[in-house]
Amino acid sequence: STQSTKHWYQRRVRAFFSLSASEAFCKMANKFLKPGKVVIVLQGRYAGRKAVIVKAVDEGTPDRRYGHAVVVGIAKYPLKVTKTMGKRRIAKRSQIKPFVKAVNYTHLMPTRYGLDLELKGVLGTRAILNKKVARAKARKLLEERYKTGRNRWFFTKLRF
Predict the structure, then answer these.
(1) How far is 144 from 98, CA to CA, in rounded Å?
(2) Residue 124: left (phi > 0), alpha (psi -120 to 50), or beta?
(3) What pTM does this model have?
(4) 24-64: pLDDT as tens digits
(5) 24-31 CB contacts, 8 Å cutoff, 24+ apart
(6) Among candidates 60, 81, 79, 80, which has minimal Cα distance to 69?
(7) Residue 147's pLDDT band (boundaries 50, 70, 90)?
């Protein structure tokens, strides 16, 4: 009885340690890195910026052999608007500059927030190849959502 328990434990330990660190992280990450989840980018040009997951790829692809997500985020946040400003100035300050990027799971920090935005249909599967069109469509959707006043936290700059 104790011998069979010992062998069972050894098999469990071997199975756990046979995973590489990235595989173990991907198994853990796919629980909450789902489309619509708001994340914060931790590395690179857009570090500290908020983004929304559009497509999650847990196993990787031939050109990206790691778990990653296609995200749409805000490169330049809208500025503060006051009552005394005119319509043209408010329109100018309400503009959003988005980015579209494939980011490694290890460079994303999930938040408790979600954004129910129809980005999947806009970006399609080949969004990374045609970023200019994808950014233009994402900008339009994000600006419409900002003007409605919903998801206010997503459109405010992180203060750190």
Answers:
(1) 13
(2) left
(3) 0.78
(4) 555 665 678 889 999 999 999 999 999 999 988 888 788 88
(5) 25/67, 25/105, 25/106, 26/58, 26/59, 26/66, 26/67, 26/105, 29/58, 29/67, 29/105, 30/56, 30/58, 30/67
(6) 60
(7) very high
